[in-house]
Amino acid sequence: MALNYTKKTLNHFLKPKNIGEIKNADAYAEIGNMVCGDQLNFSIKVEKGKIKDVKFLSFGCASNIATASIMTEKVKGMSLEEAKNYDWNKIVSDLGGLPQQKVHCSIMAVQGLKKVIDSYEDKKGNKEDHKGKAKKKVVKKKK
Ligand code: FES
Fold it and tell me: What domains can be seen in the chain, in order of their start residue?
């Protein structure tokens, strides 16, 4: 049975945006789904607390590619906090809908984005607020 994809989903599948891997990225992350076996790899460049660039590699289905493609397009230029709040419902509405059995692909895309942002923040050793200013890292002394 053929799945009912929107024209926008098919366009992002056939001509994906932001595909590839950023050389010297600020952070990398991969995420996979044990049930369907699909995988996404993300790389990001961050400047002044905003996503300057984000790319992905897909080892998955048409929805895997389309959801990651539209998500990377939408979050480019967002602050890290805004990007973390871009959720799977937004991907589905931005694509004009997704077949029910493919909604998990959008969930994996946002989980992968959050993972690469977390990886960036962990690497920096501190978190940035929404204005891009680094918060002081609090180190507690062991008693
Ligand atoms: S079928 Fe699992 S990510 Fe698409």
Answer: 7-121 (3.90.1010.10)
